[in-house]
Structures are given as structure tokens and as C-alpha cells.
Amino acid sequence: MSDRFSDLKKIPKEPAARMLARVHVKLATPVSAPVSAPVEVVLDELAGKEAWVDVLKLLAIALPAREAVWWACIAARDVVGHDKKATTPCLKASEAWVFDPTEKNREAARVSLDNVYIDDDTELCATAAMYAPGNMGPGDLADYPAPAGAVSSCAFGMNMVSLSAATDFDAHLQLLIDRAVDIARGGNGQLAPAEATEATGEV
């Protein structure tokens, strides 16, 4: 097993298969690892098979909700720009929730969705932030669970949008993966392409 997916301390120590079942997701790539295999083992097998989209999908599911929202926000910045002045209401509210996950900031993320433009993909970030606490919203809505897999689907979707806009598809795909791995290790996920290359040992 390689070291690329080692020390993912923020990812729960439970079987990857259980995480996938919880959100009703099936990987496209057959996996030979036992059902009890942790996320790191399944990620390593998928990477060995170059099943990169499934790697992204599993990372989106395995990351805790707040970390998944942050991963989506970084991907959104690939699209709108990494200058903090370049933003959208959805992205601004989502980033604010990540740094301070209060109900007030969560409500701001929800409100940002009310007037979102039809072509604003950063709505995926705000939707993820809104559902991240695990329910439909504050007040009476807190009694109703959020849709299964809503956060991971949005995080995965935002990263796929970022990938579709990349000039170097393969390099950017690896960067998206390495960001998630860095976040899972406790980092901030804001890797430059050179840093990602060093982290994976790829050229």
C-alpha cells in the first residue's frame, strides 16, 4: 500500500462500504478489498486502478461535512478566482460558515440560494453548507434529517465543475484529490500544483 492516502485522521475509522451504503452510492469500479476495509485501503486500490472519479467520489463521502464544504469552496475558487474579492453570494456565505459554523451563518448560506443565478455553480457550496449539520435547517426544520448524501454530492459536484474548467485535466484531477487528502490530514487543502506533485511523488 502506498503512503498517498495514509494518516487521514479526520476521516472516521469505519469501513468504506458502510459509508457508501449510508448515502446510497455505489462505486463504478469493482473493488476486491473486503467489506470491512477502511477508506484508506479502498482509495489505494482505486488509485492503483486509476479509477480517479471514484477516488473523488469516495473522498467526498468520507470527509466530515464541514471539511467537505471547505473542499467544495476551494474548488469553487478555481472557477470564480482565488482572489478573495472575486466571489459570489453563495461562495461568500459558504466560506463564512466553514470558518464560523453558526446557525446565523448557515441561514446566510440558505438565503444566498434564494436569488442564485441559474448558471452559478457555487450554489453547490451553499447547499452543502445548509445541510452540513445533518438536518433541513434551524427551528422546526431541525427535526427533519437532511437528504442522505446531500453534502457529499454537492462537494463532488463542485469539484467536477472545477475539473471541467481546467486547462490540464489530468494534473487538475490529481490536485483535487490531493486537496481532499490534505484536508483529511488536518491541512487547509490550499495546495499549489507543485505542492500536490511533491505530495504524491508524481511528475
Shape: globular
Distance between the termini: 20 Å
Tally of structural domains? 2
Quaternary state of the chains: single chain
List low-confidence stretches: 196-203
Radius of gyration from CA coordinates: 16 Å
Overall mean pLDDT? 92
Largest sheet: none
**SS field, number of helical segments:** 10
Relative strand content = under 5%
- Return the string of H and E elements: HHHHHHHHHH
Range of helix content: 55-70%
Describe the structure.
It is a single chain. This protein has 203 residues and is mainly alpha-helical. It has helices spanning 16-22, 39-48, 52-62, 65-80, 89-99, 103-112, 123-131, 150-164, 169-184, 193-200. The chain has 2 domains: 16-62 and 166-200, no CATH class; 65-156, no CATH class. The chain contains 10 helices and no strands. Helix 9 (169-184) crosses helix 10. It is globular, with a radius of gyration of 16 Å.
Task: Lay out the secondary structure.
Elements: H1 16-22, H2 39-48, H3 52-62, H4 65-80, H5 89-99, H6 103-112, H7 123-131, H8 150-164, H9 169-184, H10 193-200
Task: Give a quick precis of the structure.
The protein is mainly alpha-helical. It is built from 10 helices and no strands.
What are its keywords?
mainly alpha, 203 residues, disordered C terminus
